[in-house]
Every structure is written in C-alpha cells, then in structure tokens.
Amino acid sequence: SGLKDGEYCMDDIFVYRISGEQKEGQTLGTFFATGHVPVALRRLAMTGADVEQYRPLFEARELKMD
Questions:
Q1: Is 22 helix (H, G, I), strand (E, B) or coil?
Q2: Which domain holds residue 37?
Q3: CA 33 to chain centre
Q4: What is the per-residue pLDDT across 7-61, written as a single tens digit (0 to 9) for each?
C-alpha cells in the first residue's frame, strides 16, 4: 500500500470469494481476511496508540457469521 512509482497502490484487507449462484440469482460465497494489516494501524501504533487488540481482526482466515 502507498505510493509506488508515482501511483497509488492498495492491498485488499477483506475479500469475498464467490463459490456459486442460487437459482434466484443470488451469489454464494465467503468473506476472508487477507492477512494484510492496514497502513493506518501501523501508523497509529507508531504514535503510541494501543492497537494490539485490533491485530487479530486482520489475520488471514475465513470470516464466519454466527
């Protein structure tokens, strides 16, 4: 993420992977955390903010809804 060769670059933090489609046309899929930690979180940490409690939100994994 950031500026590279004069162009802005972004990394996905969360993604939705489509696995199929229902008869009604609705997509089936799952949300995933990619494991990329936002630059803003790292910058907050550099200011002394306690951000450790938020790091698990970004660990690479499938996000399940209860």
A1: coil
A2: 2-63
A3: 5
A4: 998 999 999 999 999 999 999 999 999 999 998 999 999 999 999 999 999 999 9
